[in-house]
Amino acid sequence: MRPRITVYEVGPRDGLQNEARHVPSGDKLHLIQLLADAGLSRIEAASFVSPSWVPAMGDAEEVVARLPRRAGLTYVALVPNARGLERMLRALASAGLEAARVDAAVFLSASDSHNRRNLSRSVEESLSELEALVPAALARGLQVRAYLSTAWACPYEGAIAPDRVRAITERLLALGCYQVSLGDTIGVGTPGQTRCLVELLLSRVDPERIALHMHDTYGTALANVLVGLQAGLTTFDSSIGGMGGCPYAPGASGNLATEDLVYLLHGMGYETGIDWPLLVAAGEQAQRLAGHRLPGKALQAEIGKRVAQAGAGKDPSG
Questions:
Q1: Domain locations along the chain
Q2: Which residues, in sequence order, are CB contacts of 163 under 8 Å at separation 6+?
Q3: What pTM did the predictor assign?
């Protein structure tokens, strides 16, 4: 039997924060509700970064306070530093939510140049800060996930050595992070590169502690997912409709679309717990919120199919 695959939805945070259009809290929560209805079991819902830094996430407290509650569903909120962690803990306390239902996520890059543009510090400085932040979150009952961006290549430094990615990943896991999500931030990774990187990591780390977060800039995201599946990975990040990107990665397109990922997984016989029609409905809502056509291929195929069927049903005589 094929293992169950966890589709880790990042659209309400990673996707919406990169959209030009402001999305009100109520609309974000409606999208989160649709994703939960579709069966997503891990949803990244908010980010406790400074509102002056990322205005789109300025309503993190309100969103967390009103999250739909459902058995088996875990939310995730990004925390960049100790201040962000305290904001998150206060929001959870005021909302009456148990910490076990909302994980914290920390983040850094594998390259110094990207990390300085994203976090205004070197990779080593970020790791030093996380040496205090992660244990503090764990002590308050939170589980912590880590994102490691530019794990394949950096827009400023070029290719990143797999050994560097391995070393940072091992340090994050040693701090107590339950999983490290490896990001192909500019979407240049190829299956051969992915195989080398994943095999190196799996020689030292259990597969459930590694996830892939692919971008589809060069159209290789699903090919890289396939390599991860073949290697035994069971968690893959994606964004509804393919929303999102990175403001510090010039020219990079958005995340792997959740619909594209689920279409592949279901076609290969993997179980995800996700309802396809309800997922497409969530994608249509995400496109309405974004106000423009989203890049997800499966979503656009489903929308096109529906339009064609509606047209075929019309009386040509009027």
A1: 6-312
A2: 200
A3: 0.94
Per residue in 92-111, pLDDT tens?
998 887 766 999 999 999 99
Considering the segment(s) 6-312 as one domain, its CATH architecture is Alpha-Beta Barrel (3.20)
Question: 154, 177, 196, 246: which is the annotated catalytic residue?
Answer: 246
Report the candidate in 88, 80, 115 with the shortest Cα–Cα distance to residue 246: 115
pLDDT of residue 100: 65
Rounded to whole angstroms, the Cα distance separating 155 from 117 reads 11
Active site residue 246: yes
- Token digits for 276? 């396809």
Confidence of residue 20 (pLDDT cuts 50, 70, 90): confident
Quick one: which of 249, 263, 253, 258 has its CA closest to 296?
A: 258
Three-state SS annotation for the chain: CCCCCEEEECHHHHHHHHCCCCCCHHHHHHHHHHHHHCCCCEEEEEECCCCCCCHHHCCHHHHHHCCCCCCCCEEEEECCCHHHHHHHHHHHHHHCCCHHHEEEEEEEECCHHHHHHHHCCCHHHHHHHHHHHHHHHHHCCCCEEEEEECCCEECCCEECCHHHHHHHHHHHHHHCCCEEEEEECCCCCCHHHHHHHHHHHHCCCCHHHEEEEEECCCCCHHHHHHHHHHHCCCEEEEEHHHCCCCCCCCCCCCECEHHHHHHHHHHCCCCCCCCHHHHHHHHHHHHHHHCCCCCCHHHHHHHHHHHHHHHHCCCCCC
Q: What is the pLDDT of residue 1?
A: 66
Are the beta carbons of 144 and 134 closer than 8 angstroms? yes
